[in-house]
Specification:
This protein has 219 residues and is mainly alpha-helical. It contains eleven helices and no strands. It has one domain. Helices cover 68% and strands 0% of the residues. The chain is globular and about 45 Å long. The chain starts with 19 loop residues before the first helix and ends in a 5-residue tail after the last helix.
Length: 219
């Protein structure tokens, strides 16, 4: 695992998600204030319209927004938004789904390692037990769609719980790496520690956003 993630077609994509030194460099226009207004406006319009007309077709199109528009387009809208805002929370939900879609086997390995230790979070996240890569990919879709079909705070709480389980699993994997410094997945202890830290950051980001959404303060 390196800091560059590869899509299934093999072409390089944006450096690994969760590395905010990269996402922070995406241009936001000449006036950051105007850019922030656009980010909030688009996020609110999307969520409001989805809640008003949550047909399966619309929800499916929203879940697959990155596939249709490209990660760079979504990043240009929301990537510089703080995690305690609606556009920032949506951006992180899309990034989480992209990570799972591009690394389902590795994510599942980490999740299965962490679910017994973080058993409460595992229950909140709600996958089939034990989950397969297909189950984990489906869960990522379900969590993201929940932001548009149900209570946003619940969707963010599930995302937070999922990230905590994966973070714990990656940490355990790093601690139990063999004498060569690698696991069966091919990841080194250092790389697993990096993954654990990034998922822990997402865990805390989603946790704060969920609390704000529950209080009606996520905007």
């Amino acid at each position: 695992m390196s800091d560059s993630w590869q899509p299934r077609g093999g072409q390089p994509r944006r450096p690994v998600l969760f590395d905010h030194t990269h996402t922070a460099s995406i241009p936001g226009g000449e006036d950051p204030g105007n850019y922030g207004e656009v980010a909030h406006m688009t996020a609110n319009v999307i969520v409001t319209q989805a809640h008003a007309d949550a047909t399966p077709d619309i929800i499916d199109r929203l879940v697959r927004l990155v596939e249709r528009e490209g990660i760079d387009t979504v990043a240009a809208l929301w990537s510089t938004s703080p995690p305690n805002t609606l556009p920032g929370a949506l951006w992180r939900l899309y990034l989480l789904r992209e990570w799972v879609r591009d690394s389902p086997d590795l994510t599942t390995t980490h999740y299965r390692l962490g679910r017994d230790t973080a058993h409460v979070s595992h229950a909140i996240a709600g996958p089939i037990d034990p989950p397969t890569p297909t189950d984990i990919a489906a869960l990522a879709d379900t969590v993201l769609s929940g932001a548009f079909t149900g209570a946003l705070d619940v969707a963010l709480a599930r995302a937070s719980a999922f990230c905590q389980v994966v973070s714990v699993g990656a940490s355990l994997g790093a601690d139990s790496s063999d004498s060569s410094g690698r696991l069966d997945t091919g990841a080194t202890s250092r790389q697993l520690t990096h993954i654990a830290r990034r998922f822990h950051e997402l865990f805390t980001d989603f946790q704060e956003a969920s609390s704000l959404a529950r209080a009606g303060l996520l905007d």
